[in-house]
Specification:
Length: about 475
């Protein structure tokens, strides 16, 4: 019987893990979910233990994926009432480096934020924040740029004393672009402007869990009354309420009740309301009736600003400008990965006593870099550079030393090193069999010219935009 139970648990975990892999993507799943090992299941208490190899990984998964894991297990097995995530017994606890610092928006490095359904208020003795509002996620800590300024301004307006012109506010952004940070910032700022306000923050998954528990315990009247007593409702990851008809209906009634009383509502999701499959039309109309503010992926200027804003945390450690430029250009999918790459690079340098350099970044961030790089080829770089400088393609491999030919060739070598994973010898072979030292010289020369010559820097920036578009 015990063997069969273990097999059943393993089969359920395989299904759950596969589902999470589809939701989270290969990289997050491999890093945080795949290392989880099944522990014991106590039928009396309904407690399932999940183990991870280090305290850091256990805390990380607890903070960011506990709600998702709990809900998945409760759906798979009704007898599972509690999921505990802890360090594997007998494993040595490793000393963890405190890099909770944040992603580019000052928040912890996962878009799920702090789990829980929580209320925050200001008491007689000043501000007290619940576990639902992270004190580091404020408007002051949010780095703005052209891609997120609309959402930032709308969020600020929502938190002001004056009644906003729109409600609800719907923040739409891909994972890791700052929508959860803005939710928390609205909560903090609103409390400062409305000291006696009652704020409700939760993820859509947590809303589902609380709703199901209220149903099972015949406490729906209390659940409804508690929801509708709040002045500001903040719901994150609303896409996870898809297909839950009863919960959608309750959320719909709650929205109507709060709007009728002039309350404020903010939702966040990774897609627009119209793209939420499985959501009934009435709820879709409520979600989109206010303002839908789209946060676009961070552009190169914003990525630079984010990295530079994080460097103060590592003073007096020096990070060369070419490393910042390399990270900002290469890690362009996700701001969380961007700052995670910076954290990893600096941690490695500190632990090994090495200086932060471009070579160290290339060596230690291989996985992140390969996942983010657009597959630009050296042939494509040569074609683009030749068109830009109006030289014949054959000059990339020729032995001619005329300045009008040498400089474009050096620019192409520099771009080949910046935009491709090719080594110096490999690049040299693509440029007429040149020695790797020639490529190194070209890369360093163009780097130096970019600092001193505005025209050269402008040329390189223009070429980078063409190649990365």
């Amino acid at each position: 019987m015990e063997d069969q139970e273990a097999l059943d648990l393993a089969a359920d975990w395989a299904d759950i893990s596969q589902g999470l892999r589809k939701d989270l993507g290969h990289q997050l799943h491999s890093q945080w979910i795949k290392p989880i090992q099944l522990g014991t299941f106590c039928k009396d208490s309904g407690t399932l233990n999940l183990f991870l190899p280090t305290e850091f990984s256990a805390n990380w998964v607890q903070d960011r994926f506990h709600d998702r894991l709990s809900l998945a297990w409760k759906i798979a097995r009704s007898e599972v009432r509690q999921v505990k995530i802890q360090v594997h017994p007998g494993r040595r606890k490793l000393a963890d480096i405190d890099l909770r610092g944040d992603d580019g928006f000052g928040r912890r490095a996962a878009n799920d934020a702090v789990p829980g359904m929580a209320m925050a208020s200001i008491g007689e003795h000043g501000f007290t924040s619940s576990v639902g509002l992270d004190p580091s996620l404020t408007f002051a800590a949010f780095v703005t740029g052209t891609t997120n300024v609309l959402a930032f301004n709308a969020a600020e307006r929502m938190s002001k004393v004056e009644q906003p012109q729109f409600s609800p506010l719907y923040l739409k952004a891909a994972t890791g672009q700052g929508k959860t940070h803005l939710l928390h910032a609205i909560g903090h700022s609103y409390l400062q402007a409305h000291p006696r306000a009652r704020i409700f923050y939760c993820s859509a998954e947590r809303f589902m869990i609380e709703f199901v528990q209220a149903l099972r315990q015949n406490e729906m009247m209390e659940f409804k009354a508690r929801l509708r007593a709040f002045d500001l409702l903040l719901v994150d990851d609303i896409q996870f309420i898809i297909g839950k008809a009863a919960a959608q209906e309750e959320l719909l009634y709650t929205i109507d009740a709060l709007l009728a009383e002039g309350k404020r509502l903010v939702f966040a999701a990774d897609r627009a309301p119209q793209a939420l499959d499985g959501v009934e039309p009435r709820l879709l109309s409520r979600l989109s009736m206010g303002l839908v503010a789209d946060i676009q992926p961070a552009d190169i200027e914003l990525r630079r600003s984010i990295l530079e804003s994080k460097l103060a945390r590592f003073a007096p450690l020096s990070v060369p400008g070419d490393v910042i430029e390399f990270l900002a250009r290469t890690i362009n999918r996700n701001v969380r990965e961007l700052v995670g790459g910076l954290n990893k690079l600096i941690a490695y340098a500190q632990l090994t006593g090495q200086e932060v350099s471009l070579q160290l970044a290339e060596e230690q961030l291989t996985d992140i870099l390969s996942a983010n790089r657009k597959r630009i080829t050296i042939d494509e770089i040569q074609r683009t550079v030749c068109q830009f400088y109006r030289v014949d393609r054959s000059e990339m491999s020729s032995k001619r030393r005329a300045r009008a030919v040498v400089r474009p060739r050096q620019v192409a070598m520099y771009l080949s090193k910046v935009l491709t994973p090719r080594s110096y010898p490999e690049i040299g072979r693509k440029f007429g069999g040149r020695d790797h030292s020639t490529v190194i010289h070209a890369v360093r020369l163009i780097e130096d010219l970019r600092k001193r010559d505005a025209d050269m820097d402008g040329d390189v920036r223009s070429l980078l935009r063409q190649l990365e578009s």
